Amino acid sequence: MRRTGIYVALVMCVGLLVAQAATIDVAGRDREYGKREVVLRDDCDPRDPGWAPTGGCNRSEGDVNLAEFNSLRLSPLAPSVIGHPAWWFDPTYLKVEDGKRLKISNEGGRTHTFTEVANFGGGRVAPLNASQPGTAPLTPAPECVAAGVVDIPGGGKDVVDGLTPGNHRFQCCIHPWMRTLVKVKGDGN
């Protein structure tokens, strides 16, 4: 009787370990391929009236005023646009499975776009494409100046469906340093 109890306990322990290992493996794959959301982020300060002429700041709180935003847009160490680091797509690289819907959420206070482009480039707002004096501005991505670009206001949402296997580049057509690469994995990848 005592041996039976030991065997039962041993079998239960092994079963729990196997279940835990399987759960960890599935959770790991979900983290790699399961996240299907890109968050558009910025940290504009709603108390700064400097944002008002360009649409304001639709946040309850934030720490970046317009002067800081403009001061970090360029760097004396780089000839081209750097952009303020609080304006970004999260994540900047994402793997998803073929056929899955990608959710887009603008958690920032400024309007952004999530536009698929053939190549990363400038956006539709010329002053934000400007580079250092003597350096050519960014060339706008053709998709950013075409009709049909969808603006996503602060707090807004959108979805992307129908992505085929391969790499897909997305950028904000207002703030062109905001970008992400979505790698869609098919059955054979």
What does this structure look like?
With 189 residues, the chain is an alpha+beta fold. The protein has 2 domains: 1-34; 35-185, Immunoglobulin-like (Sandwich). It has helices spanning 2-34, 66-71, 126-129, 142-145, and strands at 37-41, 88-90, 93-97, 102-106, 112-113, 115-117, 151-152, 157-160, 166-171, 179-185. Mean pLDDT is 86; it is low at 7-32.
Q: Can you give me a brief rundown of this structure?
A:
The chain is α+β, with helices and mostly antiparallel strands and 189 residues long. Helix content is 25%, strand content 22%. The chain is built from four helices and ten strands, in the order H-E-H-E-E-E-E-E-H-H-E-E-E-E.
Task: List key phrases describing it.
189 residues; alpha+beta; Immunoglobulin-like; four-stranded mixed beta sheet; 4 helices; 10 strands; 25% helix; globular
Largest sheet at a glance?
A: 4 strands, mixed
Domain count: the total is 2
CATH topology of the largest domain: Immunoglobulin-like
Mean pLDDT: 86
SSE layout and pairings?
Layout: H1 2-34, E1 37-41, H2 66-71, E2 88-90, E3 93-97, E4 102-106, E5 112-113, E6 115-117, H3 126-129, H4 142-145, E7 151-152, E8 157-160, E9 166-171, E10 179-185
Parallel strand pairs: 1-4, 3-10
Antiparallel strand pairs: 1-2, 4-8, 5-7, 6-9, 9-10
